[in-house]
C-alpha cells in the first residue's frame, strides 16, 4: 500500500540566516541550513564546522560524578570486587566494554561484567544478575556493607529516583551538566574520563574508545549535536583511520571498504553488534570489544556475523508473515493501528518488523510474540503520535509496559490480547490526526537543479556527521522534465531518473522503491516536482554527483 506523502518546508529565522550569511561570507543556502539547525552566531558556526575534542565538557560538571569517582577509587584501593552491569543492545554493550576495559587496565583485582539475557531477564538489573554478582565474590562485601550501585543512565528519569549510591544522568533534576543528550556509552565515557583526570592521566588515554562511543551514538539514535557531534566526529574519524581491532574486523566481514558514515554505523556495524543480544548472548559483543588476541577477535566477529545472518533470515520470514496477514485481511488493512500476534515469532526481531511494517502501513504498530500464556512485544509509532500514551491508556489489560514517544514495549496475558487490540485501535482512532496518518517529507530548501554542483556539495559535506538533530539536507526542485525520455523503471520497483529543468540544467539519480511513480509523474512529458538528497556516485574510478529521490509528485502551477 503506497501512501502519498506530505511535503513540508522547514521554517527558519530569516534575520539569523542573513546575519550568518554576512558574518561567515557563505551562500544564502548554507546560511539557511545553519539557521535551521539552531546556529545563530559566528562562534556557533565555527564550532559546528570545526569540532574539537577540547570542546567536550568537564565530566565533573555532572551531578554525582565526584561521588562516583571517589567510590570507585575506594573500591580499587581496598581491593573490593567491582561489577560493570549493562544492557544487551549496542549502547549497553559498548558502554560495558569501555568502562570494564578501562577499569581492568587500572585495577587487576576482582572485576567482572554482566549483561542480562533479553529473554530470561529483560532490561535493567535482574535477580539473576544479582545472583551472578554474589557468586563472583560480592557476597561477603554485601553482608558487611551492602552493594553500592552507581547508575549511569541517559533516559528521562522517573520522579522517584532509585536509591543508588550515585546517579550519573544529565537529565536528572538539578544536574548542571550542559549537554543532556549523551548516549549511555557516552555517560560511561564521561565516567572513565573523570577517573583518568583523577589519576592525572592524559585525557587522550580514553580517546581509544571513541569509535565505540560513536557506534553507540549512531545505533541509539540520539541527537548528533553539541557534545555528541564532537564525539561522533572523532569517533567516525577513528573508525575510518585507526579503528579498534574489533571494529576493523567487523568492517572487513561486512565488506565495508569505503569511508564509513553515521548511516553505515547504523546499518552495517550496529546490526552485527546488536545481533548478539537479539538472537543469543550479548556478552559475545563485549568479549569482542575487550579481546586482545587477533585470532579470538576474528572468531568472535565471525560469530556475530553469522548470528546477524540468522537474524536477517528470521527478520525476513517474520516480516513476510506479518505483511501477508495485513494484505489478506481487509479488516486489518482498514484499521488505524496494527497489532499482530504469533506465538512463534522471535522476540529479537519484533521491533525491527514493527518498524518495517510502518513503511507499508503507516500507522502505530505493535508486534507480539509469546510463550507460556504470556505475550511480549515492541511498539513503534509514526511521526507526531505518542504511542506510549496510547499504550498507557490500555494499562489495565497489561502486566507491564514502558517506553517513550516513538517506541515502547509491553507484556500481556495472551487471554487479554483481543481486548487490548480492540481498545488500542479505539484509542488510536480517537487521537491520531489526519496529518499523522501520512508520512512527511521535511524539506530544508527549494533549489534549482543547477545548484547541484561540486562547489555546493563541498559545503554540504562540512555539515557531517549527519543524524538526528542534524539530518542530511533534503531539497526540492520543481517543474522537472524527463530528459530525452531517459528515465525508466529498473528491477521492477526502482526509478532511474534523468531530469532536466525548464532552463536547461540536468541531473541524474535513483529513487529506490519509487518505480510506481513513473507512470503517474514522469511518463508522457509530464512536469514533476522532486524531493531528494545529494550524494556522490563512484563508478569505474569516476566520481560524480547524483540525487537520491525521496518522493515525486505532478507539478502544480
Terminal Cα separation, in Å?
28 Å
Tally of strands: 18
| Biggest β-sheet: strands ordered side by side in the sheet | 6-7-8-10-9
**What is the average per-residue confidence, as pLDDT, rounded to a whole number?**
90
Using the coordinates shown, work out and report the CATH topology of the largest domain: inorganic pyrophosphatase (n-terminal core)
The residue fraction in helices comes out at: 40-55%
Give the DSSP E fraction (strand runs of 2 or more residues): 15-25%
Q: What is the number of independent domains? A: 3
Decide which structural class fits the backbone.
alpha/beta
Low-confidence stretches: 139-143
> How many helix segments?
19
Q: Which architecture name of the largest domain does CATH use?
A: Alpha-Beta Complex
Q: Rounded to an integer, what's the Rg over CA atoms?
A: 25 Å
What global shape is seen? globular
CATH top level label of the largest domain: Alpha Beta
> Largest sheet, if any?
5 strands, mixed
